[in-house]
Amino acid sequence: MVNIILFGPPGSGKGTQSANLINKFGLIHLSTGDLLRSEIEAKTPLGQEAKKVMDQGLLVPDEVVIGMISSKLDANPEARGFIFDGFPRTTAQAEALDKLLALKKTAISNVLALEVPEDELISRLLNRGATSGRSDDANETVIRARIVEYHNKTAPVADHYSRYGKFKKIKGEGTVDEIFERLSKEIESLVEEKV
Ligand code: AP5
C-alpha cells in the first residue's frame, strides 16, 4: 500500500491536490474536514457539536476524528492506499494512526508538506469564503485562529514523522498543475519502490 499524509496549514491546497492525486494513483481520499462537514449537513449530534468548535477555528477532540478514520479504514479493506488530508492534526492523532495502520500491516509511506506563505493562505481562504459559504472561511479572525491552531497543535506532527525520515517539504505556491507535478513525482517514486 501507498499511504500519504498531505500536510500543511489551512488553505495550502491539500483538498485541491488530493482530488487530483486519487484519480492518478487510485488511492482513497480521507479528509476529516469533509467527514465532519457531512455530519454537520446531516445534522447529526456529532455534527452539531463539531460545528461549534469548527466555527471558532479550533480543533475537534482527538477521539472524534480518530473514530472516524478508524471506521473508514475498516470500510475499505481492499484499498491500494490512502491520502490522508487534514489528519493527523495532533501528535496523539499521529500515534493513533500509526497503530491503526500497523493493525492492518501497513504504515505511512511519506508525509508531503505543502509550504505556502501566510499572506497567500489568508487571501486564498477569504476568496473561497466569499463564494463557498464555508462558515470557517467567513472572516479573517477565524482564519487566523485556524492558522494559530495549526502552529500550536499540528506543526509538531512534522517532528513525529521526521524522526522516521518520513517528511518532505513541497513548495505549495504556483499553479495547481505545477504543484500537482511536484507531488506526483514524490508519489511515483514511492509506487516504484513498491513494485
Ligand atoms: P479542514 O476541512 O481540514 O480544513 P483546513 O485544514 O483548514 O484546510 P482547507 O480545506 O481550508 O484548506 P486546504 O489545505 O485543503 O486547501 P484547499 O485545497 O481547500 O478542517 C476544517 C476544520 O475541521 C478544522 O478547523 C477543525 O475544526 C476540523 N478538523 C478537521 N480535521 C480535524 C482533525 N484531524 N482534528 C481535529 N479537528 C479537525 O484550497 C484552499 C483554497 O485555495 C481553495 O479555494 C482553492 O481553490 C485555492 N487554491 C488551492 N490551490 C491553489 C493554488 N495553487 N493557487 C491559488 N489558489 C489555490
From TrEMBL:
Residues at which ATP binds: G11, S12, G13, K14, G15, T16, R128, G174
Give the binding site residues for AMP.
Answer: T32, R37, L58, L59, V60, G86, F87, P88, R89, Q93, R134, R146
A Gene Ontology molecular function term for this protein is: ATP binding
Q: What is this protein called?
A: Adenylate kinase
Entry note about domains: Consists of three domains, a large central CORE domain and two small peripheral domains, NMPbind and LID, which undergo movements during catalysis. The LID domain closes over the site of phosphoryl transfer upon ATP binding. Assembling and dissambling the active center during each catalytic cycle provides an effective means to prevent ATP hydrolysis.
Q: Which organism is it from?
A: Chitinophaga tropicalis
Pfam families, per database record: ADK (PF00406)
From the UniProt record, list the coiled-coil ranges: none
Any one Gene Ontology BP term: AMP salvage
Question: Which pathway does it take part in?
Answer: Purine metabolism; AMP biosynthesis via salvage pathway; AMP from ADP: step 1/1
Catalytic function, reaction form = AMP + ATP = 2 ADP
- Gene name as annotated: adk
Q: Which PROSITE patterns match?
A: ADENYLATE_KINASE
Give the protein's function. Catalyzes the reversible transfer of the terminal phosphate group between ATP and AMP. Plays an important role in cellular energy homeostasis and in adenine nucleotide metabolism.
